[in-house]
């Protein structure tokens, strides 16, 4: 499996906060971006698998949308812990979060995945692919469409994934992070695109910034999609992206609160075929909400977001599909 490594030259967190706040202020009635000590993200409402986002921060883009369209690539099967190894993460401790496709090889069908997993060593020589040498805290969610079309969100014991995956990795330590808030959207951009396009407007296509972390839809409602199972063979290949988006994906509007795990890039100057923004969300309480984030719905209750983000020092491109 081909792996390439791409270091990132990041400005200070304070500089990034200033850039992000100016972008948000053009799109939200109330917006802030500041550098804070990360709260314990294991606690509600975030319910993550590690307390923070600090310690050797890195991002990986694994596989990609060509593994789904025009026909699914059933050979694109991955392990989150093997990916952590490819990301040169420590086997002693680590934390992954992100967005991607569920392991059809384990659950028997296609679905959305919100990876949320941490580990710590329990031997002197831990190995990420040897479960007997590490203690795993797997709070990953699978979001799927049940019979009748209603979505379901539940924890997934498997540590596998498939097709495409965008991961933010770190040691999971607390430390300085970007705290970003937005309330009352007045512009056209959704929360994540407002952040990444604001960075692009300042740093351009030649100085990419890659961010990862979590945000909470605190109030209001948002639109999500959930992938159903793969189409029957006689309905493949997909004719075009429009068919995939209009005839296959299922769309849902959910009320807050919803936890969102996100990975984003301001630019792709190396031509790595990056997924520029990928956010998967879950409901930690009722198990009925989640999926791929599109945008908040400007209807009724004012929308509000709260995010904790950190730039990656290194980007890894893993198993890039051949065009």
Automatic annotation (TrEMBL):
GO terms for cellular component: nucleus. It is found in: Nucleus. The keyword Membrane does not apply. Pfam families: DUF1907. CDD domains: DUF1907. Keywords: Hydrolase, Metal-binding, Nucleus, Zinc. Residues 19-318 form the DUF1907 domain. GO terms for molecular function: hydrolase activity, acting on ester bonds; zinc ion binding. InterPro entries: C11orf54_DUF1907 (IPR015021). Its main location: nucleus. Monomer. This is DUF1907 domain-containing protein. It comes from Penicillium atrosanguineum. The lineage of its organism: Eukaryota, Fungi, Dikarya, Ascomycota, Pezizomycotina.
């Amino acid at each position: 499996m081909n792996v390439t490594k791409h270091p990132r030259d990041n400005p200070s967190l304070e500089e990034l906060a200033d850039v992000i706040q100016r972008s948000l202020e053009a799109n939200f009635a109330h917006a802030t971006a500041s550098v804070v000590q990360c709260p314990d993200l294991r606690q509600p409402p975030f319910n993550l698998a590690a307390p923070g986002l600090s310690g050797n921060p890195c991002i990986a883009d694994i596989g990609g949308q060509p593994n789904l369209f025009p026909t699914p690539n059933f050979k694109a099967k991955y392990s989150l812990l093997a990916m952590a190894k490819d990301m040169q993460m420590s086997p002693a401790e680590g934390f992954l979060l992100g967005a991607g496709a569920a392991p059809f090889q384990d659950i028997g069908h296609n679905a959305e995945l919100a990876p949320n997993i941490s580990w710590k060593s329990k031997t002197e020589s831990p190995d990420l692919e040897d479960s007997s040498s590490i203690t795993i805290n797997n709070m990953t969610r699978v979001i799927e469409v049940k019979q009748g079309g209603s979505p379901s969100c539940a924890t997934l014991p498997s540590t596998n994934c498939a097709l495409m995956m965008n991961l933010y990795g770190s040691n999971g330590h607390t430390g300085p992070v970007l705290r970003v808030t937005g309330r009352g959207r007045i512009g056209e951009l959704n929360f994540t695109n407002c952040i990444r396009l604001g960075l692009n407007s300042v740093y351009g296509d030649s100085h990419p910034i890659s961010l990862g972390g979590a945000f909470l839809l605190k109030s209001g409602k948002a639109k999500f999609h959930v992938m159903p199972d793969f189409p029957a063979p006689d309905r493949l290949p997909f004719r075009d992206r429009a068919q995939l988006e209009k005839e296959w994906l299922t769309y849902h509007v959910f009320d807050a609160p919803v936890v969102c795990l996100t990975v984003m890039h301001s630019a792709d100057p190396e031509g790595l075929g990056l997924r520029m923004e990928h956010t998967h969300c879950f409901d930690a309480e009722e198990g009925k909400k989640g999926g791929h984030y599109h945008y908040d719905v400007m209807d009724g209750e004012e929308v509000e977001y709260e995010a904790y983000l950190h730039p990656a020092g290194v980007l890894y491109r893993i198993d890039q599909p051949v065009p």
